[in-house]
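Notes, Module 5: Reading structure tokens.

Key idea: the token line is not a picture. It is a compressed description, and you learn to read it the same way you learned to read a sequence, by spotting repeated patterns. We will look at two proteins. The first is printed below with its tokens.
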Amino acid sequence: MITARAAASFEPVGRSVASARSFVRDTLQGWGFADIVDDAVVLTSELVTNAVVHAGTSADLLCLRSDEGVRIEVADRYPEREIPLQGTAVNMGSPDREGGRGLQLCAALAGRWGVEYTPTHKTVWFQLDLPARAVGTRAAGPALPADLLPLADGRVRVAVVQIDRTGHITAWSEDAEELFGYPAEQVTGKPLTDLAAWPHTPGTSTGIAEALQLSRWEGSYGIRAADGRVTPVYASHLRVRDTGGEPSTVCLLVRDHERAVLQTPLRVPADSATTSEGQSTDPFEVFIGSPAPDDLDGLLQRTVERARDMLDGDSAFLLLATDDETELEVRASTGLPSARQRFARVPVEAGPGRYGSARMPAVHDDLTAVPGAVPLLNGTGMRSVVTVPLKVEGRLTGSLGVAAEAPARYSNEEALRLQFAADRIALAVESARLGELERLRRGSLSFLVEASDLLAGTLDRDQTLALMAQMTVPTLATWCAVYTIADQASEPYLSYVLHEDEELIDGIKSLLSKVPPPDPVPTPGARVWTAPGEVAHQAALRSSMRSLGLSGGPTRQVTPGIGPTLATASAVGGETVVLPLVARNRVIGMLTLGKPTDEHFRQEILELAEDLSRRAALALDNARLYSERTAISQSLQRSLLPPELPTIEGVEVEVIYRAAGEGNEVGGDFYDVFPISDGSYGFAIGDVCGTGPNAAAVTGLARHALRLLAREGLSGPTVLERLNSAILDEGARSRFLTLLYGEMRPQEDGSAELKVVCAGHPLPLRLRPDGTVEPAAEPQPLLGVIEDLELYEQTVTLDPGDVLLCVTDGVTERREGARMLGDDGLADVLTTCTGLTAGAVAARIMRAVERFASDAPSDDMAILAMRVPGLHKD
């Protein structure tokens, strides 16, 4: 009776064989048939190889579960291929020939097997029967003396965590709270990926999602505890479903050194595994082809776990060599503290703490006799160790080691077994590593392109600093700080701090403010900076001692401040590196990147950070230069504007000024109101040909010259004639200028007398209380064109309630398509301003101009409004 089935199809490519092996292994482990997994994987591998490699067709794989065992069928699309049938006298050939071994293996390992034909398919099947088991027994080990039993804490805590189908935590046991420090209400509903420090590589899958989807899974990873530290755990995952059919995953977690509590024992002891022919096989070979070739992290982690189990060790580790073979980087470990787990680096040949046994197999009976022989194991309690190199074509690519707490555990025989396993896995590891590097480089290029676009999109210094930090956290680092240097004589200044947890930013900023900044060394590349971690550790230690009453004061409860102190210490307690920000041959700052306690940077990430720092330095320097130029420009422009308008008794004065162009405060239009003598005031509004800095230069000349000449007591026409000569003296830089200039003297009867000269400028408009609008002057020649000007002034009296409106042509020439506001349109708007103050008149004119067209103004605009309110009666 068939109780379960699983099916999959595989393309006719070489990698399908490994995928088929993984599919069968995961399926049978999920069904609880671990006893027959190895035989099923071997047979499946041979039959799928026949289909996709030798026959060159796709393969359909079907697994059927029954009460007696498992039947596996492999079908291909090559039915005319000659296949010897079971029970015939056909000679299947020599076992040493290239093809035909699949059927020989079926005959040797399977309880039953056969071949079935259809017009389009050929199906080879085999059935594996389950071995007889005693009731209630799945696996058992021999009785051992107490001193050989695995070590565990006084109380073993098994955390039970349940994960729903989306990867979110739905249940969190009391032991989980004790192990990791999180109360259930804090983590319920969060994804497990927020807590799991899974071995991962940027640009590749972390593997946690895949592990949660398997029917059964066992292995090691890390859980980031509430204090920020990574706790290594051994996990057993079981996929279940409730009565409603909803799937979920139950995770049992123990501390990694207590893995014996959960770990499924091997089917046979490693040193006694034999085939039916009596030939010994190494269990390490069983999983050689099981991980996908491009799953580097999974491959490395399974390698160290099997290596440890194979030699019955307490820990194992695998390091990969850098491209130049000068350093080894920890990429996978099991049974070691988390500080040894990821990306710690040691030199291969020279220097203190060198890894002297990297290129040849080595056995150390007692590490206490040769301290420093294997730096990775310093302070771990390991006494004996065997290490072997991973080599590809004679080149060192890594090192694999197994260690034990007892001395003299390993001999040359174990070294040879481990070397044999390392030789079998070295090529797969190197292939997966190269694939990872290629994906990482592609991801790095994409990251740098996006970063360059973002940095090039702003010239604001503060925004550039924020972008630098946001691009590094959390992609490259857990936290970062940016120091800036104003000039060569200035000390580095802490300008920006960012952490992936916003609650820790203030604590890190406070800590770094107490640490002397790193030296601004221009040498390219990242250098390690230990000061933040040391100071954080000391501060946390002092806080802990004070909280426990060990600093000489009275004993008291833990203070509220110790929590943030410990959290900050954990946040900056890992590796911290500094990269110089160099632009235009000058160090303008430093980019500091940090990891939390027990974490290190991988070399590829540091190289990517170095590329980013070069781009960020140039963007930051460009922002600095732009800010300086902008400040200079704004300062010069403000110097061309008049100071505050004077208060004129009996006359209201209001000005609105808009310079065209982004960042411009002054253009070709200008205005001024200034005192000339007792009771007399000058006013002017003008328009220099053009806009921008060149026009603004003539603006400054005209405004200052007007003030100087008017205060010499000259008449209005004379003032403008001399200004005309000064403009013409500028030669090629001269520009013609339209100008309305006048002198105003308030009268005792509440009126104001004006003497006006309108040199080519739009005529001023006079608004009377009855709404009548009329020009208040006559047009005369503009300035800066001819030398001999004959100008004259006109006298205008503003009666109480009258308004004089003066504008530049940016107001009257406001356009919307073919329409233009014009003089008549301005007059119509002014007609509606009776009874308004000078400020209200100017504001209404400006609103009318802005609403006349939807586009931003393309010309400078100036509006000068003066109103005589009249005498107040008691």
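Here is the second protein, with the sequence above and the tokens below, as before.
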Amino acid sequence: MNDFVGTGALVRLALRRDRILIPIWIVVFVMTAAGSAKATMDLYADPKALVDAARTSNASPALVSLYGRIFDESSLGEVSLFKLTAFGALLVGLLGGMLVVRHTRSEEESGRLELLSAGVLGRYAALASALIVSGATVIVLGLLTALSLMGSGLDTKGSFAFGLMWAAAGLSFAGVAAVTSQVTESARAANGLTAVVLGVAYVLRAIGDSSADGSTQWVSWLSPIGWSQQVRAYAGDRLAVLLVPLVFLAVLIAAATALIRRRDLGAGLVRPRPGPPRAAKSLRSPLALAWRLHRGSLLAWGFAFLLLGLLVGNIASNVDGFVTSDSAKEMVQKLGGVEGITDAFLATEMGMVGLLASAFGIQAALRLRSEETALRAEPLLATGVSRAQWLASHVLMALLGTGVLILVAGLGSGISSGASLGNMGRQVPRMLAASAVQLPAIWLVTALVVILFGLAPKLVTGGWALYGVFLLIGQFGEIFNLPQWMINLSPYGHTPRLPGGDFSVAPVLWLTAIAAALIVAGFASFRRRDIG
């Protein structure tokens, strides 16, 4: 039998399953790039202000570590998109990797691939179809991004270099996920390993950019994200560099196909370590089990949020130099909703941190559905554990986990900005308050996943789609002159802009009340439906 037979059918199935999620995420990425370009072009109409901003960015080790170096300080395109070069490549890489895991290891773990393999299905069909879907997604994303940047007024060659750079990052990490999906026996572990590789790649890129004399630049060439950055869109457009990630992808595909031949369907190369025959007393409750299931990802996310908070706080001391023109300061203050330019920057960045924390809340709440479809929930509910107890344990982990993450980020930014500005005693409580007010919006987005799980479990991944819509209209609604009623649909738009802005308790209470009502409705719906 042909090892690739059935690939086309699996591609059609995958596209049907992701017919909502993939278009929404493509739109989010495309609009993010176009919005960033349009906003920056409006801010830096003066060439001198553009160069001053680029030089200030390159002079800040924190900014260079977080976003990368600006190679051409006079390039409007590069300055407009420098925040999305390395960081955007990271996110596109995450999307490409998750799609591969979703349509390979997740299908094996759930048992669906075994049922399909009982028919006419080749050994490599699942991997081939997943790579086709993931590759097509990031390539379309890259091309549409290029067209949107051209529409924003940036030059053609640089726009295509930027879009293809994003696509190359997605392809690289699709290849990484193809390998990790063969190594582990669970989709969660495969995604975790892919995320680790992404993190290492980002750190290597940061190390390569960190030296002012370029002595460590060679380290960037060890990173797929560094390869994307070295394309230098709008600053040379070195398209030949794109051959490196393509060769990398080919090597990883060859490795993944070789690994498939060495394992059985459903098994991984690394066998999971068996646990003790009896659970410890600390695991004899639904909440303890939920903590055990979520603790690894929570600790990893917590470390990342602490580091992010420290970086954001450190950057705050350089904001006055970064935005030199009056129009730039006016725009940042408008986005931040506060008077001081430093507070405006911190408020805006804390809003972005809140968006990232929401992703953890969605992921944690989606664990409910994965436990159900993997048939681990039903045996548990056959014991003395009630549906409400089981559901509450995971929901509580999602809500408390997001609270821990956002407060850790607030603490880190308060310590770092306080040390930079020489007033830590004032900055720490201010940044903790700025982080705490993000929670109601985060919890509301998490609650939407809970009610989808209760009412329509097959549509629960729609939580990611709603998240993408909220992100799009919340971050770019004013830039694209969307009507106010549409902007108000995003819960993030009602969050008080702290530090420095006016605090109103009404939106905080309303968001919290809506989140609570959605969670209660989710509990009630789950009690009435069948498991499975």
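Summary for the second protein:
- The chain has two domains: 1-269, 283-532.
- The chain has 23 helices and no strands.
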